Amino acid sequence: MIRPLRASLAAAILVATSIAGATQPVAAGCGINVTFVNRENVTAKVNERESKSKAVAVVFGTNWWKRLGDGTISVPANGQKTRAYTTSFGCDVPKRYKFLVKSGGNSKTIYKPNEDGFTTKRNITVTIDF
Question: Which has the closest alpha carbon to 65: 55, 74, 57?
Answer without folding.
Answer: 55
